[in-house]
Amino acid sequence: MAATPSAIETDTGLRYRAENENLRSRINTLRSVIAGLFVVILVLWHGWEDAKKDARLFLPPNLRSGGMIHRDDPRPEHIYGFARYIFQLLNYWPRNGEEDYGLVLFKAQNYLTPACQDELRSDLEARAKRGELTDRKRAIHDVPGHTYEESSVEVKGNSVWIARIDFRIEEHVRGMPVKTVDIRYPIRVVAYDVSPEVNPFGLALDCFASPPERIEGSETSRPALPPIFKLGS
Question: From the CB of residue 74, how many other CB atoms can be counted at a distance below 10 Å?
């Protein structure tokens, strides 16, 4: 028996009603998912804001063979490179030590501990009073054949290292060479928690751990002034 028009309309209405209910259910589900995602985004945003914005990573010198990367964990080769760079900066007087010594000390102040800064300022004043810096030029270079080795850096613990670096000092006064000598410097390096904007390394020199030593058989000219730095604290 054929269905009457009213029965057909009733059946169609039921199907539409069921479909609408399904759509409402899906929409509510999607709304719940969106609300949940919004909450997750808020939590992640809050964590991102609270997280440290600058992370200091020390990369291995040679990445071809891979290597573990640790945050805020300098390796001995990083300590050696840092000490070498800052010490060379402090000992570069291209024009006149009377002016250059103070300039490089100011330039490197964020890479020196307060105690080391005080020692160097006292040394600067004492040398200036004795007239030892007038017209004196100084530069230091790596000693040929003396490069980084595992034994070059001693780990003392508690974020303290001693980097032993061999440098050749060359000095001139009024254009005349007065000093060319090779010296091993035991430079004390410490972790230094300051703003990465002024010191991205997070390290500082703490002057010397022990007296520097001349490398036997390396002196090629007359000794003159001792190198800068006194003993570290």
Answer: 21
Give me 222's structure tokens: 């007359």
Q: Of 226, 208, 105, 104, give the one whose Cα is nearest residue 169.
A: 226
The mean per-residue pLDDT over the stretch 33-53 comes to: 76
Are both 102 and 159 inside the same structural domain?
yes
Q: Is residue 233 part of a domain?
A: no
pTM of the model: 0.67
> In this structure, what are the phi and psi dihedrals at residue 223, rounded to the nearest 5 degrees?
-70, 150
Residues 38 and 80 occupy one common structural domain = no
For residue 9, being part of any structural domain is answered with yes
Residue 5 belongs to domain spanning: 1-51
Q: How far apart are CA 35 and CA 103, in angstroms?
A: 59
Chain CA centroid to CA 106, Å: 19
116, 205 contact by CB (below 8 A): yes
How far apart are the C-alpha atoms of 79 and 142, rounded to whole Å? Answer: 16
Calculate mean pLDDT across residues 160-187: 92
Question: Does pLDDT of 7 surpass 70?
Answer: no
The total of structural domains in the chain comes to 2
Residue range 182-200, pLDDT digits in tens: 999 999 999 988 888 888 8
Tokens of 192: 């230094």
Q: Is residue 144 part of a domain?
A: yes
